[in-house]
């Protein structure tokens, strides 16, 4: 005999926790399944969020999970040209962040089953039957749900089992490793730093101050497979040199690896009875994934209220997401694909255009208007720089 629930959420990711909470707020009976024994333990390496990303969720940043507040970020070209963006940001205790949103979901009546893996799902009449397994036990349980929201991360087997091709460009996942490090005063800076160029092909190497003597550094690379160790080793050596850190002052506290679907672009994110949100759907960034979860939860609750779990009904999830976030993802892909195809000297020349500008004023309004502002500044200061941006069309 199968246990019954209105909505089953797979994965306690930021998208999953928000989906569960908002589905419950909409009046649905919700059960969330998380494979880990404890939410917040061994969290995903994503470790920062900026105010603009959280604003779209309507959520207020809580001091309980913030370890260091940032004034903004610096984008740095291969030759060291810097673009400063003033925008409030936060280095996170990601475990505390996940537990904070776990409590919010519980407070809305979500049933959370940790240490429970969904090992199979299949469509049945008027719903989906999940097969779950708990811990090391060979005992399995059947759960019947009217709607399932899959939010179990970038390597989701459940999205595959549902027959959904969730990303348009899965080959473009950025694979990376983040290190938490300790060195004298390394966490005191007010700005995060993101370095682009051939040393981190396709994306970035990073420095995120976390207060006092702690920081996070990492590297994310596209088109070179999941093993980024050679790029990471080179970045560690370069980082020590940039920050004048002696070998005996540099300590690695923690190492985490994962993938970032930053430019993969969501594709098939729903079908009859099923929606996919967050990393599993190619929706990158903590704030953006949370908002996608909110949308999925609301649509799921609406489907329950109407008694309609068809793909046509659940398509509201895609249409609402596209109207809110699609442009952000497309512009992001164009920008990062352009950088990936540019030579280092071209990136340096492009950064020179913005080096003395307050680009904070260019990131206001919607993405389209931001893009027009950037193009306008390029034309005013250095028209030839637009030719560098045409690298996007190179066959590379």
From TrEMBL:
GO terms for molecular function: FAD binding. Residues 4-198 form the FAD-binding domain. It comes from the Archaea. This is Flavin-dependent dehydrogenase. It comes from Methanimicrococcus blatticola.
């Amino acid at each position: 005999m199968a246990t019954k629930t209105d909505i089953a959420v797979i994965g306690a990711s930021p998208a999953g926790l928000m989906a569960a909470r908002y589905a419950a707020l909409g009046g649905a009976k919700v059960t969330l399944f998380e494979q880990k024994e404890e939410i917040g333990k061994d969290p995903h390496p994503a470790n920062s969020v900026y105010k603009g990303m959280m604003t779209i969720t309507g959520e207020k940043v809580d001091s309980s999970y913030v370890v260091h507040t940032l004034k903004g970020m610096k984008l740095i070209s291969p030759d060291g040209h810097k673009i400063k963006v003033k925008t409030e940001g936060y280095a996170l205790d990601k475990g505390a962040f996940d537990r904070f949103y776990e409590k919010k979901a519980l407070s809305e009546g979500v049933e959370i089953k940790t240490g429970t893996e969904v090992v199979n799902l299949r469509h049945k009449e008027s719903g989906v039957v999940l097969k779950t397994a708990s811990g090391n036990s060979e005992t399995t349980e059947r759960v019947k749900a009217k709607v399932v929201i899959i939010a179990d991360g970038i390597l989701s087997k459940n999205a595959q089992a549902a027959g959904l091709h969730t990303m348009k460009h899965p080959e473009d996942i950025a694979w990376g490793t983040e290190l938490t490090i300790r060195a004298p005063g390394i966490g005191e800076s007010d700005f995060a730093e993101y370095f682009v160029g051939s040393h981190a092909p396709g994306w970035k190497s990073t420095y995120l101050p976390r207060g006092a003597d702690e920081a996070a550094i990492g590297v994310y690379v596209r088109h070179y497979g999941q093993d980024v160790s050679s790029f990471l080793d080179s970045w560690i050596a370069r980082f020590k040199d940039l920050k004048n850190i002696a070998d005996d002052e540099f300590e690695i506290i923690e190492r985490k690896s994962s993938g970032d679907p930053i430019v993969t672009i969501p594709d098939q994110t729903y079908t009859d009875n099923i929606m996919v949100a967050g990393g599993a759907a190619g929706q990158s960034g903590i704030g953006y994934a949370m908002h996608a979860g909110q949308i999925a939860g609301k649509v799921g609750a609406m489907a329950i209220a109407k008694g309609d779990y068809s793909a046509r009904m659940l398509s509201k999830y895609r249409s609402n997401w596209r109207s809110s976030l699609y442009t952000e993802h497309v512009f992001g892909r164009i920008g990062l694909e352009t950088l990936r195809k540019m030579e280092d000297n071209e990136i340096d020349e492009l950064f020179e255009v913005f080096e003395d500008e307050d680009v904070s004023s260019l990131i206001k309004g919607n993405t389209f208007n931001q893009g027009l502002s950037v193009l306008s500044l390029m034309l005013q200061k250095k028209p030839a720089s637009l030719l560098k941006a045409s690298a996007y069309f190179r066959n590379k």
